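Q: Here's a chain of 317 amino acids. Please give me its 3D structure as tokens.
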Amino acid sequence: VVAAPTKARRKNVGATEQIIGSSAAIQRVRQLIDRVAPSDARVLIMGENGTGKEVLAREIHRMSMRRNHPMVSLDMGAIPESLFESELFGHAKGAFTDAHTERVGKFEAASSGTLFMDEIGNLSPAMQAKLLTALQSRSIIRLGTNTPIPVDIRLISATNRDLFSMVNDGEFRQDLLYRINTIHIDLPALRNRREDIVPMAEIFLSKYADKYGRGELRFTEKATELLYKHSWPGNIRELQHTIEKAVIMADNRDIDAEQLNLQPTAKPTSDNSTLEDMERHMIREAMEQNDGNLTVVARRLGITRQTLYNKIKRYGL
């Protein structure tokens, strides 16, 4: 039986759970953070969904010289092209039909601090061009005005897509990639840092045992073995949700394999599965077989990358 973390260890449970570990892969990431964070270098974080890209961005901001100023986060994949300029650069009152008041954009809101742009690989060519102009000039122009406003931000970008392949395919501007990619950090998938799985699961176990008032919980040997062997296509996000559900459903001190309720991802769904279950399984299997390369996965499934991205978010993969 694996003992639950000590109370001393519980005090360390916090926002940096996803970059805890002893694996060589995660240690390289931590060493890179230590060198990069105090600088003002722009950082590009690449990794599969659920690997903790925003957590890593927040850690970089926390360790930076800008830590006393805001970090503003923005999901670039969720912004319609028609609202892009208003969202990033702001607008003046009356700039368009619904602009009843003046609005400050994300660039201004993050000035003197950090701007985190998640899913930057989802930008259209027109949006890429507007972003590049702002980064080059270090200023923005609100919609409805002609006055440049200087902005001082530290940019951290993230994506689950291969921007280098997208540049080769003409889908992402090379000059924009140069602007956002002073330092490049690859976050490893959880299946590629297996020695970190059980220690991380123990941290989540302590966190949710405290949250739900369940006292000291622990994993049985069978549960530990299952945690280690599972492929974790949803990465840390899947692990976290799995442990939270197990804590909620626990009826004694031990968390056994059955309570983890992990379905083998290699097995096909049953005849009684819903269409959504079947689709979720197909996407998860394709992601696992292609190492999370969404370009290849989308091509294999016969859908666009944007459709694949939307389904991944919908199913929490």
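Q: Can you summarize the key feature?
A: Residues 197-211 form the longest helix (15 residues).
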